[in-house]
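PROTEIN DESIGN WORKSHEET
SECTION A - STRUCTURE
LENGTH: 255
TOKENS:
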């Protein structure tokens, strides 16, 4: 079951209405005493419905979770669809410059503060969640993948596991590397991270950069599942194919 509603969001251009989504697992109604882990996701318009998706193709997350009877709640909020690439502002924790699009003042910290202090408490208050960090996940792709990795590192007291698909590591590699080195991590932190082999050429040195980032993360003691997806590209159709790997990692050995 998926519920969809409008929620007030403090966007970079001021308060605005955003579509929010929550997926409830197949056994939710039948077992009224059970509580569930929650996966928070970026780019919510692309998570469930093709008709809402930016490019007409979603990840099909609900279909997969229904088919596998996975005991998980998924909560997502749509991204900023502004014509001036406001999504890049809201989904970057750091300021950065892009040759094609120009300069961006990253407001990703503000975005994550809203997820942590506004959206998560709302979901915990209205649904039967297991709200501790061990059962609180975050995930996304591209800029949403960068945000998910950042959230796991910077908000380790909130998020115990994350999925970062095709993360935009190119945005601010030095700042992200520094964060990996200094962040305080709780034991048992879990990360799924991948990159498509066909998208490696989108940015210079991406294969090398992805490998180096994985090595640094692994050295910090994070339980890392890292993959280069054979034939994978930068699209919802490709990310949908990775769902078995994503959810196997997020749910593995979870109490």
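SECTION B - SEQUENCE
RESIDUE ASSIGNMENT:
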């Amino acid at each position: 079951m998926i519920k969809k509603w409008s929620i007030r969001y403090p966007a970079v251009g001021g308060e605005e209405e955003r579509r929010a989504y929550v997926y409830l697992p197949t056994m939710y109604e039948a077992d009224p005493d059970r509580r569930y882990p929650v996966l928070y996701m970026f780019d919510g318009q692309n998570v469930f419905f093709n008709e809402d998706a930016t490019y007409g193709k979603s990840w099909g997350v609900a279909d997969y979770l229904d088919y596998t009877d996975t005991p998980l709640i998924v909560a997502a909020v749509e991204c900023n669809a502004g014509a001036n690439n406001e999504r890049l502002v809201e989904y970057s924790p750091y300021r950065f410059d892009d040759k094609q699009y120009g300069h961006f003042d990253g407001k990703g910290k503000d975005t994550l503060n809203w997820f942590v202090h506004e959206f998560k408490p709302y979901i915990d208050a209205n649904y039967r969640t297991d709200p501790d960090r061990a059962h609180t996940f975050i995930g996304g792709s591209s800029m949403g993948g960068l945000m998910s990795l950042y959230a796991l590192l910077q908000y380790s007291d909130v998020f115990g596991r994350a999925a970062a698909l095709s993360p935009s590591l190119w945005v601010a590699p030095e700042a992200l590397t520094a964060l990996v080195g200094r962040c305080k991590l709780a034991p048992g932190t879990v990360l799924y991270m991948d990159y498509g082999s066909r998208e490696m050429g989108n940015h210079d040195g991406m294969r090398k950069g992805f490998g180096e980032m994985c090595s640094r993360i692994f050295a910090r003691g994070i339980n890392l599942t890292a993959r280069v997806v054979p034939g994978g590209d930068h699209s919802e159709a490709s990310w949908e194919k990775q769902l078995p790997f994503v959810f196997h990692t997020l749910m593995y050995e979870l109490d």
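SECTION C - NOTES
Residues 36 and 129 are 5 Å apart (CA to CA).
The chain is about 35% helix and 25% strand.
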